[in-house]
Input
Amino acid sequence: MDAFNVTARDYQYGFSQRGAAMYDQEGRLRKARTVIAVLQDHLETTNKLQTLSLLNLGGSTGIIDSHLAQYFQSVTSIDIDQSAIEYAQTHFTTPNLHFAVGDAMAISYPDRSFDVVICSQVYERVPDASRMMQEIHRVLKPGGIYYFAAGNRLMWNEPHYNLPLLSVLPAFMADIYIRLLGKGTHYYERHLSYWGLQWLASCFKVHDYTARMLQKPEQFGIGYMVNPGSTKARLATWIAAHLIWLVPGYIWLLEKRDSQ
Output
């Protein structure tokens, strides 16, 4: 099924074929470096990752996973996009790196299988984000960490279609909007607000890294987005401190409590 022809809230098969983003080496490696920087900061060590197993949901073409495999004991990456997984399997073959076609809402691994799960900018693309979160909680070991990168519904510009205020519109109006602009047949993504994301992550303990990253963009590898000392950086830091619900995206580390 072509990604442009998905109906209702079915899966977005073939997402990697929508453009060049999933094959952008430097862009994907930037994201991978940020993941490593955040996890090392949280764990307060550069070595502990070497003892941990990681699952990446929505790994796509494997560029991010190939970088993560240099730090973790094992990396497993799944995606519903078969062509992306085939690309990853062909191009990245380190022994501790494994790729498979898989469903984030029905993860085919036993309970408590992984120390770390990564799910970056995926929740808005799956048919049922709540079910995906339950599955992530299930496969995480107690005390395990879930790296959750999520866009906010209350954003000025919707990044998938580059249209202002698209994500805040009701679904039927968003469909009309993108048709009128020739961007597609309907708006598939379903973003949540800050409060909706809090509800989605309610079974985890939340460590919100958003403000900290904006305060130290170089440390967390986001200097290319937020130039340290710039007006944009100062404004973003102020909004994160006082109006967190208006920040266009969040980085949370979600911890599975030991008792669960």
The helical segments are 25-43, 63-68, 82-91, 129-139, 171-180, 194-200, 210-215, 231-242.
